[in-house]
Task: structure prediction
Amino acid sequence: MFKQAALSAETVTADETASTCTSEKLPSTVSVSYRDDDVPSGFKSSSNEYKSDSHTVVPVPDQRLFSSNKYELKYDWLYYSGAKVGYCCKLCELFSATDDNVFINGTGLGDHPTRKLESHLNGKSHKNSLAKYVLVNTSSTKKVKKTVADMLTESSMIKRENDIERNRAYISSLIKILYFIVSQRWALDSFQPMLDFIAGLGPTSLSEYLNGSDSEQSSVLKYSSSTTVTDLLTATSYVIENQLLEKLRKAPYYALLADESSDEAHKEQFAILVRFPHDTRVTDQFLGIIHVERTDAASLMKSLEVFLLAKGVEIKKALFVGFDGCNTMSGENKGLQRRFRHHVPYQLYLNCRNHKLALCVKHLMLSFPVLQDVDSLLLSVWKLFHYSPQKYVIFMDVQKAYGLKNLKMIRAAATRWLSHGRACRRLIERYVQVLDALDEMIDRKHDPEIDGLRNMLCSKGILRYSVLDIMEFPIE
Result:
């Protein structure tokens, strides 16, 4: 009955409110102003003493029957306001921009206090109030006295940040220099002279960093060792390769050129080149070298498929392919071009025309022995001066005595068809000097091989029917 009367109470006296907020142990009852109209009918019928007085003070039990200490300890912003008869938030009262927050006007915790408090804690209004509170505390004008250890730590941190920024700027300059060198396809044997040259042109950041003008830079790293430069070049090559591959992937089609050869260590290599349209012009690019163990058509085709797949290039866009004229590459039944057509049925194959011309000359030499003698003569002259430093010095001295520029003999390679013409031209240009050098060698030490080579050079048949005839066709 008393609880029902308390629920309909409208005002609480100021004295009773103050006693509720200040007393450590709250009283078991509080006094409220009660009107006769608000008394339930059941209560009127059972208590006649309330009928005669329209304003009677009745005892009401305290609504805070549970202990809120655990909530106030867990949430340090929570407190109970006796003036507002409810729980409030300290931060929202001070810093909230709106007044519609229930924790500003005072509210009860309900049947699920934790759920309600957590909802307010994660709410936007409470987070904004908390941010303002932190901002006010951090922007305080109070000067905190720093210890010597704090000042040393702060100085060390500032120095470390400055070193990091300086190193980043220096490494950024190195990468830009290497990127320019690689993009221009310059050959670079040593990076340090190039770096010193660029630093001497005026960039203060590079020159100060390399010279170590500051005392703090006495032990600075210059990142110019071969290992570091190799790593930078590798990273730069990855960037340039990715840019190239992006252009190739966007091309509607491309032409693929490939050739197989072996290096000085007799390792088989398969070089891949592409031509594709880009920005209204045709671009030629070198994709890479494949190290192969076998050079048959099936192995080369498999290596080519794996290579293009690793680069992310569609093999079906290779509408044009070009190889040399050997059976492994150009075979109509089992050659590489035939196997390639299984992937691209409409591809056009063009074999190397220059390679065909070299094969024609090779077969022609079998029918004319004088051409074989010329080929043997050119190779013998080159070997004479190439593999003997002493004989090479004699040849250079003879050219110097004639007041001519020192030139080397050119090798007539069997696989380099244009080299035969250049070797013939060089022999005619230095024909007299070669004969004088051979005479000097014979005078010093009579050697039958050198004597036989000189007689071959003086042979009228070779000079008339081979070397001089070849020289009628100028070679650029």
Remarks:
- The chain has 22 helices and nine strands.
- The first strand starts at residue 29 and ends at 35.
